[in-house]
Specification:
By secondary structure, the protein is an alpha/beta fold. The chain is 39% helix and 23% strand. The protein has two domains: 2-106 and 209-243, 3-Layer(aba) Sandwich (D-Maltodextrin-Binding Protein, domain 2); 109-203, D-Maltodextrin-Binding Protein, domain 2 (3-Layer(aba) Sandwich), CATH 3.40.190.10. The chain has helices at residues 2-24, 48-59, 74-79, 138-141, 144-151, 162-170, 181-192, 218-231, 235-243, and strands at residues 28-33, 64-69, 85-89, 99-107, 109-114, 131-135, 155-159, 176-180, 200-203, 209-215. The strands form two sheets. It has a five-stranded mixed beta sheet. α6 packs across α7 (181-192). The longest helix is centred in the first third of the chain and has 23 residues, at 2-24.
């Protein structure tokens, strides 16, 4: 009787160990906005943010199941519990009943002009004097002062395809483009086949924007915050910054 009980106990113990491993290795569904290199490179399922998060979640015992969505849809999918995690979320967005993680990535929107034009900009209001091309919905994201300035500018449009912003600047068809500095750096290299930052002036007239993950499970969020803190101290994080040649 004692021998049978021991075997039963061992079987139950091994079952629960296996069950715990399965739970820990659960795939995490994460909603990711469409292509935004170098942060998100959809064709390779890679990019600065995706590579970072894949490593962090792997350290937590999870694999990522990436679900690409149109811009702005991530928060809605998260709120309904359709996905476990939403990526690149602003704290200004309502994701209730989900919760925000600590900030994991920072974007730096800037005004960029060709060096040969000798343009000097120290304030957002000065954009009114120039032709400007912004990214899609820039007038919503960058605040009232920006919206007022570009409303009064010589020429202003917003483009969903940011590679076209870069092309129009390099062709001299606009004075200024408004975009994240690392997106410009990546796309200008792709356009010209070489680094182009020495040939432009970067006007840092906007504050940085910190972005967060949204979690439907608060316990998972807490574990992520802890692992994120350790990851940012690691050599892997420095190597990731160097891999994508981030300008900070």
């Amino acid at each position: 009787m004692s021998k049978y009980t021991g075997k039963s106990f061992l079987t139950i113990f091994l079952f629960f160990c296996t069950f715990i491993d399965i739970v820990r290795a659960k795939d995490i569904n994460i909603a990711v906005g469409w292509n935004k290199p170098p942060y998100v490179i959809e064709k390779d399922n890679s990019g600065f943010e995706i590579d970072m998060l894949r490593t962090i979640f792997k350290n937590m015992g999870h694999e990522l199941d990436i679900i690409y969505t149109p811009v702005g849809r991530s928060s809605g999918l998260l709120k309904k519990g359709i996905v476990d995690v939403g990526m690149t979320l602003s704290p200004r967005v309502d994701i209730t009943p989900a919760v925000f993680s600590n900030s994991y990535v920072t974007y730096q929107n800037v005004a960029i002009s060709l060096k040969g034009r000798g343009i000097s900009i120290n304030e957002i209001s000065q954009l009114a004097k120039f032709s400007v091309i912004g990214f899609q919905n820039a007038s919503l994201y960058l605040g009232e002062e920006y919206s007022t300035a570009v409303d009064n500018s010589v020429f202003y449009i917003e483009l969903p395809d940011q590679s076209k912003q870069v092309a129009m600047l390099l062709l001299g068809r606009t004075d200024i483009v408004i975009m994240d500095i690392n997106i410009f750096n990546y796309l200008s290299k792709a356009h010209l086949g070489k680094d182009h930052m020495a040939n432009v002036d970067v006007h840092r007239i906007f504050p940085t924007n910190a972005y967060h993950l949204g979690f439907f499970d608060e316990n998972l969020k807490n574990l992520f915050n802890k692992e994120l803190m350790e990851y940012k101290k690691s050599l892997n994080y420095r190597q990731l910054i160097n891999k994508y040649q981030f300008i900070q």
